[in-house]
Amino acid sequence: MNDKADKTSSRTALGQNDDLLAAFYPGMKPESAKEASDDGLLNSVQIKVQESLAAKQQFFTDYGDTLVQISRTIADAYKAGGRLLTVGNGGSSCDAAHLALEFLHPVTAGRQALPALNLTSDISTITAVANDVGYKHVFVRQLLAQVMPNDVLVIFSTSGNSDNLMALNQKAFELGIKTVGFLGLDGGELHKSGKLTHSLVVECDSVHRIQESHLVAYHILWDLVHTLLANHRVAREITF
User: Fold this and answer.
1) What's the rounded mean pLDDT across residues 202-228?
2) Pseudo-torsion of CA 97, 197, 143, 164, nearest 10°?
3) Is 231 exposed, middle or buried, given 0-12, 13-18 or 19+ CB atoms closer than 10 A?
4) CA-CA distance, 180 to 109, in Å (whole number)?
5) Which of 11, 21, 157, 221 has the fewest Cβ atoms nearer than 10 Å?
6) C-alpha triplet 123, 128, 130: angle, nearest 5°
7) How many other C-beta atoms lie within 10 A of the C-beta of residue 84?
8) Torsions phi, psi of 90, nearest 5?
9) What are the backbone angles phi and psi of residue 137, rounded to the nearest 5°?
């Protein structure tokens, strides 16, 4: 194949990738890469910082009350002997791991360690279920094995359209488990299903701005939950 044909093939593949991304993340706009001077790059930094601040300001204006409600839901779950379960795909799996870690290993003196389970952490189980049954079921199988009546499930999804997370939320709904969605764009099918107990939607078309807002939100959530548990020691905690 000659160079011209290679370039045509590459453009076709890139176009197909853009189409796939557009289908999964409706409303997102593809960005073109181009060279820039240091001044141009510095200006880009300032623009992105302002975009991030604006996204957060709007998000917390819209969802501050919801964040308080979620903190009460999680605190009540802990008081009843429940746990926090977290889950996500890709970059959102990192947020799921981070949130679980915040509760398992609090970095603020005087805050108790609280039980939390990250469903994205067991790679053996995930790959086994994906291989034997299909990736759509990797979290549902874990939920069925792990969940207890007073647990709360926190789902991270920038698109809200992941098949495995929608299947997971459907099963949690059927089991009567309370769920929290950290979402982006318009919330996707997860939000539209009406089967989440609480939804937090960063209404923005940038995955980066969405995840940055999620990070601030769950740090605040962690603090609110501990504030509500200040005079309540979780019975399952072990003191060394």
Assistant:
1) 96
2) -80
3) exposed
4) 27
5) 11
6) 95
7) 24
8) 60, -130
9) -105, 5
Displacement of CA 83 from its chain's centroid (Å): 17
Contacts of 128 (CB under 8 A, 6+ apart): none
Over the stretch 59-70, which tens digit does the pLDDT of each residue have? 999 999 999 999
* Correct CATH for 54-228 of 3.40.50.720, 2.40.50.100, 3.40.50.10490, 3.40.140.10: 3.40.50.10490
> pLDDT tens across 111-146, in order?
899 999 999 999 999 999 999 999 999 999 999 999
Say if residue 15 is exposed, middle or buried (CB neighbours under 10 Å; 0-12, 13-18, 19+). Answer: exposed
Give the Å distances, CA to CA, from 204 to 33, 83, 92, 186, 209. Answer: 21, 31, 16, 8, 7
The confidence score (pLDDT) of residue 37 equals: 78
Q: Report d(CA 240, CA 236) in Å as an integer.
A: 13
pLDDT band at 169 (very low <50, low <70, confident <90, very high): very high
